[in-house]
Amino acid sequence: MLTTKPGTSMEVLKYIKEVSNIEGVIYADPVFGRFDAIVVVEVPSLERLSEIIYKVIEKVPNVIHTETAIVLTGLKSEE
What we know:
Blueprint: E1 2-4, H1 9-19, E2 25-30, E3 37-41, H2 46-56, E4 63-66
Antiparallel strand pairs: 1-4, 2-3
């Protein structure tokens, strides 16, 4: 979950989706509420997650704050 400088969330998301080519990004979308955007990544390890957050996402221009939530167990939908 990201907080961006006012008026820059779409620019930040475009950068994350198109410019930075972050491996593992499932989606990155703007939201209303406490945060400006949510970026969902799927990675093989916490070490890789840390690299993405600290070395890539937090260095994206106009990102003010990040907050991470880790899914403990995924629920699979029945089809």
